[in-house]
Design brief:
By secondary structure, the protein is α/β, with parallel strands linked by helices. The chain is built from seven helices and seven strands, in the order E-H-E-H-E-H-E-H-E-H-E-H-H-E. The radius of gyration is 18 Å and the shape is globular. It binds nicotinamide-adenine-dinucleotide.
Length: 251
């Protein structure tokens, strides 16, 4: 029980990875807040997880984030950590480089990286008053290395330029905040997962796996060990680090 009675907010907690994070936090004795813009899905997931609660949160809305903080503080008297994991993207997200308009590029950066900034800023304000806190940002291998475009050949998929900029920016935002909050007992770290299997074409999975050690694309469950470690006191003195979990893909 590494997270006994810790109150932990997971943004995008109703998604593919977020739901696995929430189950793992609960299994370690934490009180998990499934905070998602899609509150119905969050509630469905919460119904299956002991010690969990669903709450509507839009990481692009200052008033929404502030309301969540006020509610949780009232209910639990404390918030131990926030996991920035939501994945907002606009309707044109996912295009090839020459098809990305300036407007879409800017909008996706705003809603994603901007949302991570806003959530971190408002939670950090609360953590400062509380005198401790823990922020974990979910980045990606594509924040660490440039895309391996060869694995996308013959598929409809690509690695969007916005994603690379958002995720690399997020790793540096993590280090910036870790340094900025050094004397405030607020820790900030990031996790950079490799690709998670979710119905991608077989040919893609094969090419991806050629870059890996033994598994290739991961399951959400493969990511939870690092999350629990960073949320727990086992990582008490770890600040501003980025943990890559990718079965060797980036090597
Ligand atoms: N899936 C992968 O292969 C992979 C790999 C590396 C990193 N990641 C990262 O992991 C995180 C989670 O990804 P996922 O695959 O689980 O995504 P997902 O699309 O399955 O889930 C994202 C969740 O975020 C919620 N969301 C969207 N906009 C929001 C907003 N404005 N406010 C609050 N919640 C909002 C959605 O409702 C959804 O429940 C993301 O940061 C993603 O970039 C994913």
């Amino acid at each position: 029980m590494k997270l006994k009675d810790k109150v932990i907010v997971v943004t995008g907690g109703a998604g593919l990875i977020g739901a696995a994070f929430c189950r793992a936090i609960s299994a370690e004795g934490g009180i998990v807040v499934i905070a998602d813009v899609d509150v119905d899905s969050a509630q469905n997931i919460s119904d299956l997880i002991p010690n969990s609660t669903a709450i509507q949160l839009d990481i692009n809305s200052k008033s929404s984030i502030e309301a969540v903080i006020v509610n949780l503080h009232k209910k639990y008297k404390k918030i131990d950590a926030v996991v920035n994991n939501a994945y907002p993207r606009n309707k044109n997200y996912g295009k090839h480089f020459f098809d990305v308009t300036y407007e879409d590029f800017c909008e996706n950066l705003n809603i994603n990286l901007g949302g991570y900034f806003l959530t971190s800023q408002l939670f950090a304000k609360f953590f400062k008053q509380q005198n401790y806190g823990n922020i974990i940002n979910i980045s990606s291998i594509y924040g660490v290395i440039p895309p391996r475009f060869d694995i996308y050949v013959d598929t409809k998929m690509t690695m969007p330029v916005e994603y690379a900029v958002i995720k690399s920016g997020l790793i540096h935002l993590t280090k910036y905040m870790a340094s900025y909050f050094k004397s405030d007992k607020i820790r900030v770290n990031s996790i950079s997962p490799g690709g998670v299997a979710n119905g991608q074409p077989e040919s893609f999975l094969k090419k991806y796996a050629n870059y890996c050690n033994s598994k290739g694309m991961l399951d959400p469950q493969d990511l939870v060990g690092a999350l629990i470690f960073l949320l727990s006191d086992d990582s008490k003195y770890i600040h501003g680090q980025n943990i890559i979990i990718d079965d060797g893909f980036t090597l």
